[in-house]
Design goal:
The chain is an alpha/beta fold. It folds into 2 domains: 77 residues, no CATH class; 187 residues, no CATH class.
Length: 302
């Protein structure tokens, strides 16, 4: 059974990672059996999940600070297939936890490529980033809801070029238009019809970038895309917080940064440095309860 080691989740630090609804269901079931058997005494319940440690490694648990095993979640008691709602709920939990840990600036990457880019660049820590998948709009909503002072996305252009068209869920089943958006911005940068047709016929976004670079318009196209990305992100959050983006390419590395990206990256680095200094000095977040303390107080059992 996993245990909570970071604040911001359904259970306090130190408790077994069993959410409120399954805890209530366990209690009710045990009480029902106790009444049927006419047993007047107390009971201690031990939850054991075989191979929980191995299963947990394949989930969001390590990122959420749930260690030592799998968690028992749930809000209704009904098991449903993994859905978009479940994925967004996991994203919401991670963002809520970043806020509870004291982060004031949120760093987000759509997937593993973004995390790898952060790791290779060494400018910003991938451990600090939330993996937002295709849910750009929901990430902006959640950042505003939890009072973050700024949000910085780091993304491959193949994913985030869609945001320049106002597409806030970047899954291919929702919308594509990558090449069409690139072609539109290529036209704005002065590319001719032949170039635009080659962009539209490109097999991948990376191939389309080759065409634009060959035509000498790649740099203005990237600038134009970044302006539109900021525009649509601002529209999504109604200006409640500054949102920036860093775009990169697998072949070319970093392509460009939106107007606010540099300032946001600096704020995140400063926050990371402050965190490191606080950790070296013993921390300033106050004492946190240990699993042993919680168990002694009876809060570690459902």
């Amino acid at each position: 059974m996993g245990r909570v080691t970071k604040p911001g989740l359904d259970q306090p630090v130190g408790n077994a990672a069993i959410n409120r609804v399954p805890r209530q269901m366990i209690r009710e079931t045990v009480e029902e059996v106790r009444r049927e058997l006419g047993y007047p005494g107390g009971l201690q319940v031990v939850i054991s999940i075989p191979a929980g440690v191995e299963l947990a490694a394949k989930t969001f648990n390590p990122r959420l600070g749930i260690v030592g095993g799998i968690s028992v979640l749930g809000t209704s008691g009904i098991v449903e297939p993994m859905s978009e709602a479940a994925l967004v709920a996991s994203l919401a939990a991670e963002i809520r936890q970043r806020a509870a840990l004291g982060d004031r600036y949120l760093l987000a990457a759509p997937g593993n490529y973004g995390m790898d880019f952060l790791r290779d660049g060494r400018e910003l820590s991938p451990e600090r980033a939330v993996k937002c998948s295709n849910y750009v709009g929901q990430t902006i909503d959640l950042a505003a809801e939890h009072g973050f002072r700024g949000l910085l996305f780091v993304s491959h252009i193949g994913k985030f070029v869609k945001v320049a068209g106002g597409i806030m869920n970047t899954h291919s089943r929702e919308a594509d238009a990558r090449l069409e958006i690139l072609a539109a911005h290529g036209a704005r940068a002065g590319a001719g019809g032949d170039v635009l047709n080659r962009v539209l016929d490109a097999a991948t976004t990376e191939d389309a970038l080759d065409v634009l670079e060959e035509a000498g318009v790649l740099e203005p196209v990237i600038r134009s895309l970044l302006e539109k990305i900021e525009f649509y992100c601002d529209h999504r959050c109604y200006g409640k917080l500054p949102v920036g983006a860093v775009l990169y390419s697998s072949r070319r590395g970093e392509l460009g940064r939106s107007a606010r990206a540099g300032e946001l990256a600096a704020a995140i680095r400063e926050e990371n440095l402050r965190r490191a200094e606080e950790a070296a000095a013993g921390g300033t977040g106050g004492p946190r309860e240990t699993p042993e303390k919680n168990e002694k107080q009876g809060r570690g059992k459902p």
